[in-house]
Specification:
Blueprint: H1 3-49, H2 65-75, H3 86-104, H4 121-129, H5 132-142, H6 146-181, H7 190-196, H8 207-220, H9 232-235, H10 245-270, H11 284-308, H12 314-341, H13 346-367
Helix pairs in contact: 1-2, 1-10, 1-11, 2-10, 3-4, 3-5, 3-10, 5-6, 6-8, 6-12, 8-12, 8-13, 10-11, 12-13
Length: 368
């Protein structure tokens, strides 16, 4: 290799490293700011549902309350229990945070607006989100606290169970892409999935799949009524009960960043993402705003469910997954397979899946 070629290769490598580092810093900064205002937004929305005002004192309308809370957490003493496993205890927040961060790198917020456009984006998001359970179990096992251990075990059982209907609901969308692309194996590229919904979102075809996705998403996020792993009344805070200060804030950051990531992901897969209704030729700012509005609608709905639906017992939670969600997700997948394999009109898919969605809503109302 000539000296000039070596210099060019080193320059290219340095430029690549700087570009990746810049993207990482940008995503972390955006994620932190979004999470801070999601916590503020949740407090305001829940307060309105409960006929309160929420934060009002710190800044105009309480707008800088989130910054005050973050500053307080950074300054709080970081305590590690004497009987905790040092390395497991200290690495658990990072093992919980890093998978969430990696998911955000693959999400398309507008056309070609993402850190990385992956051909297997749908599969990648699932594979990475499944790693989150490792950090949660590390926190529960490494804390040396029976309540933390119980919260970690509950979280593991819950997340493993509800991932099955969650995966099947997304598999139903992947099956529809095979019909839209004319390719037998369809596509798992999130940008392509969004572009295929330019004329109509996929929620109009299998509405049951969206309902299954949203319900399982609440469980994966440990949001009410599936917040048993962190139930204060039973296990005083769950798997991160022994954490404080900056490490506790990392669990908080992971939770709200996961909620944002799931909301963007759901809007791309089911609601057309950046492509519907303005099309793939719309200005990037319009596409970005469209994705944000759709993801925000998911987030507000999550807040709404928290204020209106009581927490389930552990037996009710597991029974609901294995006896209701899993059979209905399998039925949805079979309906997709039959209708698409025989090339029947897709309106038939809307009718059958809509009937299934109505049945699921009726079951939820009856059990409530």
């Amino acid at each position: 290799m000539y000296p000039g070629e070596r210099f060019n290769s080193i320059t290219h490598l340095v430029g690549l490293v700087l570009a990746v580092a810049g993207s990482v810093v940008l995503v972390v900064l955006a994620m932190t700011i979004v999470v801070m205002y999601l916590t503020y937004g949740e407090r305001k929305v829940v307060a309105r549902f409960q006929q309160r005002l929420g934060p009002t004192e710190t800044g105009p309308g309480g707008l800088i309350q989130a910054f005050a809370d973050a500053f307080k957490l950074v300054l709080k003493e970081d305590i590690r229990p004497t009987n905790a496993d040092r390395w497991v205890f200290e690495l658990a927040p990072y093992a919980t945070f890093i998978p969430v961060f990696m998911v955000l790198l693959a999400l398309p917020f507008a056309h070609d607006w993402g850190v990385r456009d992956l051909g297997l984006g749908l599969f990648y998001v699932f594979a990475i989100l499944g790693l989150n359970i490792v950090g949660i179990m590390m926190a529960g096992l490494g804390s040396g606290n029976k309540y933390a251990l119980l919260g970690g075990i509950r979280a593991a059982a819950q997340m493993i169970s509800y991932e099955i209907p969650l995966v099947i609901s997304l598999l139903c969308v992947a099956m529809i892409t095979s019909a839209d692309t004319g390719n037998e194996i369809g596509t798992l590229n999130l940008n392509v999935i969004a572009a295929l919904q330019e004329d109509r979102p996929y929620v109009l075809l299998p509405p049951l799949a969206l309902l299954l996705f949203f319900t399982a998403m609440l469980s994966e996020l440990h949001r009410a009524p599936f917040d048993i792993p962190v139930a204060e009344s039973e296990i005083v805070g769950g798997y991160f009960v022994e954490y404080s200060g900056i490490r506790w804030s990392m669990f908080q950051l992971s939770e709200y960043a996961s909620m944002w990531g799931f909301s963007v992901f759901g809007s791309v897969v089911f609601l057309g993402g950046w492509a519907f209704p303005f099309g793939a030729d719309a200005h990037w700012s319009v596409q970005l705003a469209t994705t944000m509005v759709k993801s925000l609608s998911f987030i507000v709905l999550i807040f709404w469910v928290r204020t209106t639906v009581p927490r389930l017992r552990i037996d009710q939670l597991m029974s609901f997954c294995w006896k209701v969600l899993l059979p209905m997700s399998i039925v949805q997948m079979l309906m997709n397979g039959v209708i698409l394999a025989y090339d029947w009109p897709q309106e038939l898919l809307t009718l059958t899946s809509g009937a299934g969605a109505a049945l699921l809503v009726a079951i939820i109302i009856k059990r409530a």
